[in-house]
């Protein structure tokens, strides 16, 4: 089983059609699940998909 792809906030922003600053705010607020690697945020593809599905409701 391969490792899950981690997206940068910029990549997640492109997928969500928002600014990367918005994605970072959502990460800090816990609205979007992410992984903090030192000072850098990363978003798992599965967390991004779950966020998109949750937003559809």
Describe the protein's architecture and organization.
The structure is a single chain. The protein has helices at residues 9-16, 20-29, 45-56, and strands at 6-7, 35-37, 40-44. With 57 residues, the chain is an alpha+beta fold. It has a three-stranded antiparallel β-sheet. The relative contact order is 0.22. The chain has one domain. β2 and β3 form a beta hairpin. The protein is built from three helices and three strands. α1 packs across α2.
How does the SSE layout of this entry go?
Layout: E1 6-7, H1 9-16, H2 20-29, E2 35-37, E3 40-44, H3 45-56
- Helix and strand content put the structural class at alpha+beta
Choose one word for the global shape: globular
Uncertain residue ranges: none
Arithmetic mean of pLDDT: 93
How are the strands ordered across the major sheet?
Answer: 1-3-2
Indicate how many domains the architecture comprises. 1
Please trace the helix and strand order, writing H or E for each element.
EHHEEH
Please state the CA-atom Rg, rounded to the nearest Å: 11 Å
Biggest sheet layout: 3 strands, antiparallel
Distance between the termini: 31 Å
Binned, the helix content reads: 40-55%
**Tally of helical runs:** 3
Question: Summed up, what is this model?
Answer:
With 57 residues, the chain is an alpha+beta fold.
Keywords:
57 residues, alpha+beta, 3-stranded antiparallel beta sheet, 3 helices
